[in-house]
Design goal:
The protein has 347 residues and is α/β, with parallel strands linked by helices. The chain is 34% helix and 17% strand. It comes from Amphimedon queenslandica.
Length: 347
C-alpha cells in the first residue's frame, strides 16, 4: 500500500500490503508524528483529532487502534461511538478546531476492502506535500510503539470524547441555512425513493429531509440497514448506473414515485435518477435517467445561484463566484456567464 492524497485503501488481510491492525497502527504512528512536526506536540494535544468509521468489517476495531495511538501521545480524541457518514468527520474537525481527522472507510469499494482517509485542519482531504510527508513519517515509525496494541480501556480514557450527539445536532442545524424555501417544502408533490446501498446513510438522510421539511423518503428495504456483506450489490457504487439501482427502480415503480436518491456505503457519494415520460421498457418498467455527477453539480450550482439572486436583488456580479474542481465539467462556466458572475476552477 502507498499512502496518497486519498489515504489508504486495500483489501483486508495479513501482510504489509493489506489493511489490518498492524498497518493501521503504523499509519497512525506516522500521521501522529507528522502532525506533531507541523503543529507542535502541545498544539496537537490541545486541539485534538476526530476519528470516524463506517459499517464495514473491522472499521470499528481499526478506529480504536487509531484512537489508541493518539491518546498515548497525550492527544485528545473525538471518537464517534457509532458508525457515521464520512461528512460528519470533517464537519466535527472544523467544529472543534482539530488538527486533523481520520475516517476509516473504503467508500464504495467491494466488501473485501477497507481504507483510511485523512482530513487536514481545514476540513479538506489532504493535498501535496502533506501526503509525501505523512508517508515518510509512516516509514520512519513502522515498529509499533509499546502501547499501540492495547485498546481494551479506550472507552474509559479521559482523553476520549464521543462527539456524536453534538455533531448530529450541529450538522442538521447548520445545513438549514441552505434550505432556501422551507415554507414551500411540505407541499412538494415529489416523494423520493432512497437507497443506502447497505451503508450508514438512511437515518441521516431521513433527518436531513426532516430538517428541510420535505416529505418523508421511501427506503429501499433490502438495502436500508448497514451490512458489510453488501448482499444485493457486487459494487456498492451508486454511480455505476442502472445496474446498481435495480432494487431502487423496483421500489420506485411499486410505489409510483419518480425520483431516486442513492448514497454509497459511507454516504459521501450521491446519485440521482428520474423517471422519464413516455414509453416503458421491456418488462413494463419506466424509462429511467441516471444523472451524472457533472449534471448534479451543475443543477446544484444553478439552484444556489437562483436563490442567491432571489435574496440579493442588487448584488455585484464581480464579487460572486461559481467554483468547480479541475476534473469537473465546465457547464457552470456557461451558467456564470449568463448570470453575469465570476467563474473559477479549484485545484
Amino acid at each position: 500500500m502507498t499512502f496518497g492524497t486519498a489515504g489508504l485503501r486495500s483489501k483486508m488481510g495479513a501482510g504489509f500490503s493489506r489493511m489490518n491492525d498492524l498497518t493501521v497502527i503504523q499509519t497512525t504512528q506516522g500521521l501522529c508524528k507528522y502532525l506533531e512536526l507541523q503543529f507542535g506536540k502541545e498544539a496537537c494535544q490541545e486541539r485534538g483529532v476526530v476519528i470516524g468509521y463506517d459499517a464495514r468489517y473491522n472499521s470499528h476495531r481499526f478506529s480504536r487502534y487509531v484512537a489508541n495511538v493518539f491518546i498515548n501521545e497525550g492527544i485528545k480524541v473525538y471518537l464517534f461511538s457509532r458508525e457515521t457518514p464520512t461528512p460528519f468527520t470533517p464537519f466535527a474537525l472544523r467544529r472543534y478546531s482539530c488538527v486533523a481527522g481520520v475516517m476509516v472507510t473504503a467508500s464504495h469499494n467491494p466488501k473485501q476492502d477497507n481504507g483510511y482517509k485523512v482530513y487536514w485542519t481545514n476540513g479538506a482531504q489532504i493535498i501535496p506535500p502533506h501526503d509525501k510527508g505523512i508517508s515518510q513519517c509512516i516509514d520512519d515509525n513502522l515498529t509499533p510503539w509499546p502501547t499501540s496494541w492495547e485498546i481494551s480501556n479506550i472507552a474509559r480514557n479521559p482523553l476520549i470524547t464521543d462527539p456524536y450527539p453534538d455533531v448530529k445536532d450541529g450538522y442538521f442545524s447548520a445545513i438549514q441555512k441552505y434550505c432556501y424555501r422551507k415554507q414551500e417544502n411540505p407541499a412538494s408533490p415529489v416523494t423520493c425513493v432512497y437507497t443506502a446501498m447497505h451503508g450508514v446513510g438512511y437515518p441521516f438522510v431521513k433527518m436531513a429531509f426532516e430538517a428541510f421539511g420535505l416529505p418523508e423518503i421511501i427506503p429501499v428495504e433490502e438495502q436500508v440497514k448497514p451490512d458489510p456483506e453488501f448482499p444485493t450489490v457486487a459494487y456498492p457504487n451508486p454511480e455505476e448506473g442502472k445496474s446498481a439501482l435495480d432494487l431502487s427502480i423496483s421500489t420506485a415503480e411499486a410505489h409510483g414515485h419518480s425520483v431516486i436518491i442513492a448514497n454509497d456505503p459511507d454516504a459521501d457519494r450521491l446519485a440521482l435518477a428520474e423517471k422519464q415520460p413516455g414509453n416503458t421498457n421491456k418488462g413494463g418498467r419506466g424509462n429511467w435517467r441516471v444523472f451524472t455527477g457533472n449534471e448534479i453539480g451543475s443543477m446544484l450550482g444553478w439552484w444556489a445561484m437562483e436563490n442567491f439572486k432571489k435574496n440579493n436583488k442588487n448584488f455585484d456580479g464581480s464579487k460572486v463566484h461559481l467554483i468547480c474542481s479541475t476534473v469537473s465539467s465546465k457547464l457552470l462556466r456557461s451558467i456564470a456567464k449568463v448570470e453575469g458572475i465570476q467563474f473559477s476552477v479549484s485545484g
